[in-house]
Amino acid sequence: MSNNTVALSSDQILARIQVIVAEELELEGEPTEIDPAAHFVDDFDADSLALIQILARIDKELGISVPVEGAENLTDLGTLATHVTELASGAKGA
User: Fold this and answer.
1) Is there a contact between 35 and 48 (Cβ–Cβ < 8 Å)?
2) Dmax over Cα atoms in the chain, in whole Å?
3) Closest to 46 (Cα-Cα) out of 65, 29, 22
4) Which tens digit of pLDDT belongs to each residue from 4-42?
5) Across residues 33-54, what is the average pLDDT?
6) Are 60 and 2 in contact (CB under 8 A)?
7) How far is Cα 87 from Cα 35, in angstroms, rounded to an integer?
8) Three-state secondary structure of the chain
9) Interval 44-55 mean pLDDT
10) Are 11 and 78 in contact (CB under 8 A)?
11) 77-93 and 10-24 helices, crossing angle to 10°
C-alpha cells in the first residue's frame, strides 16, 4: 500500500489522470483538452500495455490501486476517472 494516498476530489483525480494519460499516450495539446469520452484504443491507438502503465502510474502517483482484472472495461478517460474516484472513496471508508 502506498503512503501517497491523499484525499482528492473527483475533479482533482480527473485532472491528475488527464496528465498521466496525456504523458503515457504521448498526446499533443493540453491534458485538460482530452475528451473524457474519447476511446483509448479507437481514438488514441493505445494498447493493453499502455493501459497497464497508466494504472501503474495512478497507483504510484495517487496511491490508488486499480486492479488489472476488469481493466478492459476502462475504455475511456471518463470511465477510468469515475472508477478511480469510486476506489478512492471506498479506500477512505476502509
Assistant:
1) no
2) 38
3) 22
4) 445 788 899 999 999 999 999 999 999 999 999 999 999
5) 94
6) yes
7) 22
8) CCCCCCCCCHHHHHHHHHHHHHHHCCCCCCHHHCCCCCEHHHHHCCCHHHHHHHHHHHHHHHCCCCCCCCHHHCCEHHHHHHHHHHHHHHHHHC
9) 94
10) no
11) 130
